[in-house]
Amino acid sequence: MIRPKTQFAVLIVLGMTHFLNDLMQSLIPAIYPILRESYGLDFVQIGIITMTFQIAGAMLQPVVGYITDRRPSPYSPVAGMMFTLSGLLCLSQAGNYATILISVALIGIGSSIFHPEATRMARYASGGRQGLAQGIFQVGGQAGGAVGPLLAALIIVPRGQGSLSWFAVIALLAMALLVWTGRAHHQNIKQMAARKAAGGASAPAHAPATIALAMFVLIFLMFTKNAYGESFRSFYTFYLIERFDLSISSSQMMLFLFLIASAAGALIGGIVGDKIGRYRVIWISILGPLPLTLMLPYVDLFWTGVLTVFINLIMASAFASILIYAMDLMPNRIGLVGGLFYGLNFGLGGVAAAILGVIADSYGLDTMYRICALLPLAGLVAWFLPRLDTRPAD
Known about the structure:
Blueprint: H1 8-30, H2 32-39, H3 43-59, H4 61-70, H5 76-93, H6 97-124, H7 130-159, H8 168-197, H9 208-233, H10 236-244, H11 248-276, H12 278-287, H13 290-295, H14 301-315, H15 318-329, H16 334-363, H17 365-372
């Protein structure tokens, strides 16, 4: 059977929409220093903002994925972007803590609707090159998450909270692009159904015990990976300001360097996973940064920047392989798996942010980073993952 061609145009446009979606999301932690100064927030309240946003983004994703598995909805990401647009405008005008929480919840709900079907779009357009497809899709999201703090430093910090409304045009652009990908996805759905009707090869079934063990390990690895990542997304700017006396703008630039490494790591991890298998990439990406994380709390500003870039470059390579590994375990539940793991990416990170906020308030940011330095040890549990051959057949 001839493998379908990889639809690079669809994947690139999907990567662009993921870039725009995650750019808007990343504006939330990027403006924490402004919100903290304007409203007198402590680290626990900062952590609760992150938790609200990420739990709102987590709740609906598996539900949306389950529904779209049964009834694919090519245009559902457009509806998700409408929620993001509403939340962004609301946040730009928020005058109290409660309104801030409502605003970030709307943005989180928008992401919960966007990711499951967009993940399916990438898989259907992959032509069998799943790692490359997810790498392109995720590199867009990671790059958007990196550019957000940069734009916040250049636009929002000097002009204030109200300038968030300027980014509404980004949501409108993303909606237009998603209409185009929705049309292409509609054609892919029909072609996929035709191949199944013609007797195409069905995906292999895995034993329930195999699926349960692998999913437990993957979720645990996701939590530890996200906990370490949240220590930077939510608190890195405060750490740099407190320890090295950087300005808000300079700390945002350092955060940009940390986050842009995620983009390269996501793409590299997807491509390498196609070559050597998901299991090896998961093992390397979680456990590999341990020596660097142990050094980080004790180095100067220059080496802090260098180490954080390399740590995130390695860690970011995990998510594509974790996601595709889970899809290969449950190949008939692509939307559910995509929704579950993107939801976990939000929800587990939000819980971790709240916990880390308590540690930072109680013991200080230095102690928090020394504790987080041990989290890559969790990569040892990857040994319990069933050895699946997740590389595509030639």
